[in-house]
Amino acid sequence: MLKKFNQFFHPQVNQIDMSFTPFMVNINGNILQVMQATDDNIPDLLVLEEQVYSGHTPWSKFSFASELKKRRNSLYLVVYNASTLVAFVGARFSPEETHITNIAVAPSFQNQHIGRYLMQMMIERARENDSDCVSLEVRTDNEIAQRLYQSLGFKGNFIRKNYYQDTHTDAMNMVLWLKPHQIRRKKFTF
């Protein structure tokens, strides 16, 4: 009886499951280890960013450390081939929306379906957590990534001007709806 009484006053609303068990996977002939990112991975994450973004690191050591602390509603995964970091992905989860915050694949491992695999994992996790949609931002000039996201069902939503502050590049917000949705229209009274 006390348990029911307690649940009435303190309901568990849409508990998000952030548990993750590391595993090995063969993607396109590459044996890869997928595991949850920790602070120990930050040096490798920065090196991978430099490779992907032509010497730039859009996310700093502080940015990664800050995001990795948000374990209640975020999941960051790293993908290693032996001792080499080849990809990572991060997302924040809520019942309304799962937002992909970051994804990168090392240039020497691109076009091998690793990025698609990671996106599909996060989309499935969003479904398991009952999110309404998955969203992300992508550079407006990154047509390869846009095609990948479109092939997964994402649709362009709107443009965020100067979203990437380091390069003053615009971003396209893209959304994959997991549940039927309605456009909410504001009612105006005159």
Number of domains: 1
User: Could you give me the name of the CATH homologous superfamily?
Assistant: Gcn5-related N-acetyltransferase (GNAT)
Count of separate DSSP helical elements: 5
Mean pLDDT: 88
Query: Helix and strand succession?
Result: HEEHHEEEHEHEE
Topology summary:
Blueprint: H1 2-9, E1 23-27, E2 30-36, H2 42-52, H3 61-68, E3 74-81, E4 84-93, E5 97-105, H4 114-128, E6 133-139, H5 143-151, E7 155-164, E8 169-177
Parallel strand pairs: 5-6
Antiparallel strand pairs: 1-2, 2-3, 3-4, 4-5, 6-8, 7-8
Descriptive key words:
single chain, 190 residues, alpha+beta, Aminopeptidase, eight-stranded mixed sheet, 5 helices, 8 strands, EC 2.3.1.128, YpeA/RimI_acetyltransf
Concise description?
The protein is an alpha+beta fold and 190 residues long. The chain has helices at residues 2-9, 42-52, 61-68, 114-128, 143-151; strands spanning 23-27, 30-36, 74-81, 84-93, 97-105, 133-139, 155-164, 169-177.
Mind explaining what this structure looks like?
The protein has helices at residues 2-9, 42-52, 61-68, 114-128, 143-151; strands at 23-27, 30-36, 74-81, 84-93, 97-105, 133-139, 155-164, 169-177. The chain has five helices and eight strands, in the order H-E-E-H-H-E-E-E-H-E-H-E-E. The chain is of the alpha+beta class and 190 residues long. It starts with a helix and ends in a 13-residue tail after the last strand. The protein has one domain: Gcn5-related N-acetyltransferase (GNAT) (Aminopeptidase, 3-Layer(aba) Sandwich), CATH 3.40.630.30. Strands 1-2-3-4-5-6-8-7 form an eight-stranded mixed β-sheet, sandwiched between helices. The model is unreliable at 1-12 (pLDDT under 50). The chain is globular and about 45 Å long. A hairpin with a 4-residue loop joins strand 7 (155-164) and strand 8.
